[in-house]
Specification:
Length: 288
């Protein structure tokens, strides 16, 4: 059996996992998709770990846990973890192929900015993703003017989106980000691209566009790495694995969201149970 693993710190990567069951995917015979929610504990996510080194050590433990499943490919469907892995790979190499999301996202942003020369890009992500400046630096290296690119951290939004993407609090938060973003650029642009550099943010695509359109004074378009071309692979069956239980409301919300898009994923979420020994993590060592 061929086995592909999609991992994310949370449920946002399910957007990418669902593409394995789309009509356009090419499912090989007996291809199994395992989804690893690698959130370390219910109270301590990767963005709460005390240092860059701590993030690397915990993700190494995650990959050691994944090793037990002998995957043919591991896709990191997470911007934060892709950045962590780029650092980790300098001193640790797992015995299976690993592919991150950063290069795919940079390609999509670059193409959008090249096509619209009088446009700007706002990179939206977790605190660690935005502070890393990995996207800005990659785009500047490709010749994009630095003044066309800004970043805005959206702490806590990912967890909120898991519980209910349509919640009024989601709209209020995004409206607040739109107001902040309006002050970041020194001049108005003909088009503003929103780089959704957290897989969770795709759950609220319509809200991002509508709230930013109210204040931007220009056209607003999304660059969503979840929807960019990927491996072209497909799967026959799905299993969800997590060290922790779902946050309140998340199972019900995500099952409803994927019921029509990908019933295989909805079915897997309904029956999933936490597996405490999925990978090694001692919370007192990092978040005590």
């Amino acid at each position: 059996m061929k086995r592909v693993i999609v991992c994310d710190s949370g449920l946002g990567g399910l957007n990418i996992a669902s593409r394995f069951f789309s009509k356009e995917s090419k499912a090989g015979e007996n291809t199994e998709l395992l989804y690893f929610n690698v959130y370390p504990s219910a109270t301590c996510g990767f963005n709460k770990l005390p240092s860059i080194r701590a993030q690397e050590e915990v993700f190494r433990n995650v990959l050691e846990g994944i090793k037990k499943y002998s995957p043919d490919l591991c896709l990191i469907a997470c911007n934060t973890l892709s950045i962590v892995y780029n650092r980790l790979s300098k001193w640790y190499t797992p015995p299976f192929p690993v592919q991150g999301i950063v290069e795919t996202a940079v390609d999509g942003m670059f193409q959008a900015l090249e096509k619209e020369q009088e446009s700007s890009l706002l990179i939206l992500g977790t605190k660690s993703t935005v502070e890393s400046k990995v996207y800005e630096n990659a785009l500047i290296d490709r010749g994009i003017a630095p003044e066309r690119i800004k970043g805005l951290a959206c702490p806590g939004l990912a967890t909120l989106l898991e519980s209910d993407p349509a919640a009024e609090e989601v709209r209020i938060r995004i409206a607040g980000y739109a107001a902040e973003a309006d002050k970041l650029f020194s001049s108005k642009q003909k088009k503003l691209f929103l780089g959704l550099c957290c897989t969770h943010f795709g759950f609220a695509s319509g809200i991002w566009k509508s709230e930013f359109a109210k204040v931007s004074g220009s056209g607003v378009e999304l660059v969503n790495p979840n929807e960019l071309p990927g491996t072209g692979l497909g799967a026959n069956n799905f299993k969800y694995l997590s060290k922790i239980d779902f946050f309140p409301g998340a199972r019900e919300s995500m099952c409803a969201y994927f019921e029509q898009i990908s019933p295989q994923i909805a079915a897997g979420l309904k029956t999933a149970r936490p597996e405490k020994n999925l990978f090694e993590f001692n919370e007192e060592d990092y978040c005590g």
